[in-house]
């Protein structure tokens, strides 16, 4: 029952991360791609329709489920479904890390940080378009788990298949899952089911990518710039999700602020690498490697010129916080959980007390950012409020469908069939 309780709590926290006046809004691709597809195209073909070069099966399925709600409630329904999916991922993570971390408190804290991390509230909370990041987080921990019995193994296989069919970057974690199976020796023949399902899902992603490749403009940042971006979008957001406060602090104190935040996290990682058992040492090392790899890949494939220098002074442009730092931040936070479990196992009070304090501070920072001032949804795009104008447009023009604008800008909209508006 505890995994269920943890999952429900995370789902509820995710929903609370949305400011009340935005819970009836739709975010970007959630509307223009996933809801539009669910409302206008047949199932199940729409589930395997590539977007941006790869498959998004779970977001498309979430949108399809949301369309079962009355038309004025579709936005709210989609947000609820998206939060529920993150809750399921959180429950899977809680179960998967049991063999790594015996302490239920440590496990619960790490899983709750999935929803409490300040940057989650900027654009990831309640959005189908960002579910793939949470799947990456979940798949990292599933990689270390071995299911012994048929039912858990098949359930985990369904999860890995869904994750692979939603996030093409999951291939970066597949070698880890394979290595764990080989190194630890399969507990039963069913232990291979999640890995096989994962591989099948990735093969489907390859087919989708080859059939509909994504136009790319790659730009690998210089090492110093990459380090600055990592500090700005991965480390600093552990303090707050208020972009204005972070911008002011960054411009005032420079990178010393990021160093102050990074030192205790690095100390936790160092403690784990020295004192933890072999398995947790590997977890710590690979969590750091994957955090850097995933962030580097994200900012290389999606170059954004956020940092510049003018007359020798640092300048910040555009959105300070983005979704690209979400999974790396969660992986960095896991240093604290691994170190705390190590201190508990070794009964080292001197190490456990500061680690507990750090965990409390991180959770408090997340709780204080529960209603993120940096949330990028526009309350003016409230879905129910748009229904009146959509009805009028359908009645006057006699069109078969109308475009309903969604957040964050007028460039995004849902193609809503008039039959859904007029009935």
If you had to describe this structure to a student in words, what would you say it looks like?
The protein is mainly alpha-helical and 423 residues long. It is built from 18 helices and four strands. The strands form two sheets. Strands 1-2 form a two-stranded antiparallel sheet. A two-stranded antiparallel ribbon has the order 3-4.
Q: Please give the alpha-carbon distance between the first and last residues.
A: 42 Å
Q: Give the neighbour order of strands across the main sheet.
A: 1-2
Low-confidence stretches: 307-312
What Rg do the Cα atoms give?
22 Å
**What order do the helices and strands follow?**
HHHHHHHHHHHHHHEEHHHEEH
* Portion in beta strands: under 5%
Count of runs of 4 or more consecutive helical residues: 18
Overall pLDDT score: 90
Question: What layout of secondary structure does this protein have?
Answer:
Layout: H1 2-16, H2 28-40, H3 57-66, H4 74-96, H5 104-116, H6 120-123, H7 131-142, H8 150-164, H9 174-184, H10 193-211, H11 223-235, H12 243-253, H13 256-275, H14 278-301, E1 307-310, E2 313-316, H15 326-346, H16 349-368, H17 383-397, E3 401-405, E4 413-417, H18 418-422
Give a brief outline of the structure.
The chain has 423 residues and is mainly alpha-helical. It contains 18 helices and four strands. It has a two-stranded antiparallel sheet. A two-stranded antiparallel sheet has the order 3-4.
Name the descriptors.
423 residues, mainly alpha, 3 domains, two-stranded antiparallel ribbon
